[in-house]
Here is the input.
Amino acid sequence: MARLKTVHRCQECGYSAPKPMGQCPDCSAWNTMIEEVVEARPGAAAGAAARRMTDFSSEAVALKDAPAEAEARTSTDIGEFDRLLGGGVVPGQVLLLAGPPGIGKSTLMLQAAARLCAQKTQRPVLYVSGEESLRQVSSRAQRLGVRGDSLFLLCETDLGKILAAVARVKPWLMVMDSVQTVFHPELTSSPGTVAQVRECAAELLRVAKATDTVVFLLGHVTKDGMLAGPKVLEHIVDTVLYFDTERHDLLRVLRAQKNRFGPTDELGLFEMGEKGLKEVNDASRFFLADRDGKTQPGRVPSVTIEGSRSMLVEVQSLVVHTKYPLPRRMATGMDLNRVLVLLAAMEKHLRLRLEDRDVFVSLAGGLRIKDPAVDLAVCLAVMSSAREAPVPADWIMLGEVGLLGEVGRVPHLELRLKEAAKAGFHRALVPARCAKELSRKPGLEVTGVADLRSAAELIIKGSDLDI
Ligand SMILES: Nc1ncnc2c1ncn2[C@@H]1O[C@H](COP(=O)(O)OP(=O)(O)OP(=O)(O)O)[C@@H](O)[C@H]1O
Ligand SMILES: [Mg+2]
Ligand SMILES: [Zn+2]
Here is the structure.
């Protein structure tokens, strides 16, 4: 392991000092002094730099002559995980799996590590835990029913010892749980500080790239905003995955924030149970679970698309007389500003009076979406609640609503209609222009509407739209 000389450098003005300091003596900023590595001897510096260079660099070659082999991906055998990874992990890939405390990072990783083990039995997988004892990890493995004959455990936080173990075990994949607990013995900063996290990750990255080892770094982020730790790693790793619940604890959602080897618009859905994380394959049923064919004012189903997955969602709305001088507007699971625009469009084009009403709009199931294709469902849900008129239960609503009250086209309409038909819906309200272009019979009756008014007249009982 490299012998290091370090200084504490102000991240604002660049002032450096040999000792840690709370306040920068030069620019007077607080908590900006972060330990950094400087190479002590010129020879050593050149050597280290050269060593770092050779790990990545090569002679310049013409692109047409560059070797382009198909990446050999190894599947995690967890469909929802593979979906995010673009099929599996790639040799030398460094991934950051970040999430709030207790979300299930260690659980997911242990389950994935065991499955990955079974894919390549010639070489082991190494799971390094800096947070839990051997007994804790193995009893979790027992609870999850996880076993892997070539899965090795190591409970250690000293990076030097971890690297020694890596050299001994020669894993094809290693997990570092978590990157905030590991420390570089030659830095004086404590574990979890920016300096430690950055330097330890850099060292593990070098190992990954030099030996084609897949490295998973687990990291904590706090609920409000990101902790310094994982944030500073985002640009050096190949893939950043965030694991979190959206709104409430029903569902754990894995999203890719950055990916050099796969898509970033996908999401992986899991449920936490006694036996660990279970994949949620049939997301639609999950979101419409308590529907059982009942009609009720204010609930309107639609279909959203995330990555390559289409999901049924239910928009719910509640419109009541306000008790405050200023009526309240609340949106859960979607963008409030978007909802405000839709409300304004409805006030203008449907003469719907909402100035003395509180309006609440929410997406059932706990997901957060940005898909404008649910606009029409939002508008009809608000209308339906305002007029106490339920929307027929077998209709699905799809369409973006514009400022002028027009119902605009939605991408991937056929995919959405297929999902709705599969879930037992019989009729769909879609943008008029899209309805004309449908090539195949979608498996349910499709009606096109050009604007909000015709949609409301068709769906909401009664012709007088003023309330
Ligand atoms: N015996 C159990 N039965 C069911 N669920 C459990 C059990 N033990 C733990 N859990 C679930 O596992 C979650 C913790 O998982 P895990 O330790 O993998 O999370 P983590 O993100 O690694 O947390 P940390 O930040 O502490 O490292 C708990 O919040 C709980 O939901
Ligand atoms: Mg953990
Ligand atoms: Zn300074």
